[in-house]
Amino acid sequence: MTVTVKNKGVFICIEGLDGSGKTTHAHRVVRNLQKNGFDAVYTTEPSTGDLGKFIRSSAVLEGKKRVPRVVEALLFALDRVEHLEKDVKPALEAGKIVISDRCVYSSLAYQGAAGLDLTWIEEINRMALPADLAIYIDVPPEVVVKRIRRKKSVMETLDTQRKVQEVYMKYITNGKLVAVDGDKRKASVTESILAVIMDFLEKNG
Q1: How many domains is the chain partitioned into structurally?
Q2: How far apart are CA 2 and CA 167, in angstroms?
Q3: Furthest-apart CA atoms within the chain: distance in Å
Q4: Is 5 within a domain?
Q5: Do the beta carbons of residue 132 and residue 103 sit within 8 Å?
Q6: What is the pLDDT of residue 157?
Q7: Contacts of residue 6, Cβ cutoff 8 Å, sequence gap at least 6
Q8: Is residue 3 part of a domain?
Q9: Residue range of the domain that includes 109
Q10: What is the pLDDT, as a whole number, of residue 66?
Q11: What pLDDT, on the 0 to 100 scale, is given for residue 3?
């Protein structure tokens, strides 16, 4: 039997630094929930739509051809709204548990760390559906930099990752994000994430 949640669904976001393992854990969480009878689906930001594909292209994310950061922030916000309207909201209306690999907190953390004003980033994302539960996989910047050292990314330096982490910590401190220790065995991290989710579902399902 497939379990829906109050026939309105639950929107859960998995956040973390590049190299924190959030994509792996998001997929593992979805599989575990499905195995236990929940109607869970995986989605990601940037989306797989036209805007999301453009954002993933070198014209946006690579250093030499990178678009201005303000434009980047607006592109992410536009893709987010389109993604929520086309993919996330219909799934929630069908009673599904939507596990999103990144959400608005990624824009706040990465673009905020790049120097953009957090209040402005929040404002341009005002139409974005807030997550019912947002989980941050906490891995030290020193660890993630080692994991992604072979990738060519403008966001991979230790100093940058520390700045990104600082922004995430602000939202953990104010209760918007729930932190889970990500610097341990993969199975243990997934179990910790699932424990947070199941506790939330028991209290709100």
Answers
A1: 1
A2: 38
A3: 51
A4: no
A5: no
A6: 85
A7: 95, 205
A8: no
A9: 10-204
A10: 77
A11: 47
Task: Decide if 79 contacts 45 (C-beta within 8 A).
Answer: yes
What radius of gyration do the chain's Cα atoms show?
16
For residue 58, CA distances in Å to 26, 53, 62, 67 come to 25, 10, 5, 10
pLDDT digits (tens, 9 = 90+) for 139-187: 999 999 988 876 655 456 889 999 999 999 999 999 999 999 999 999 9
pLDDT digits (tens, 9 = 90+) for 5-45: 555 899 999 999 999 999 999 999 999 999 999 999 999 99
Give the helix ranges, DSSP H, for the chain: 22-35, 50-56, 58-61, 69-83, 89-93, 104-106, 112-113, 118-124, 141-147, 158-173, 186-204
In this prediction, what percent of the chain has a pLDDT beyond 90?
81
DSSP secondary structure letter of residue 99? E
- Is residue 67 in some structural domain? yes
Estimate to the nearest angstrom the gap between the alpha carbon of 108 and the chain centroid. 11
User: Can you tell me which residue has the tokens 């953009």?
Assistant: 116
CATH code at position 21: 3.40.50.300
pTM of the model as a whole: 0.92
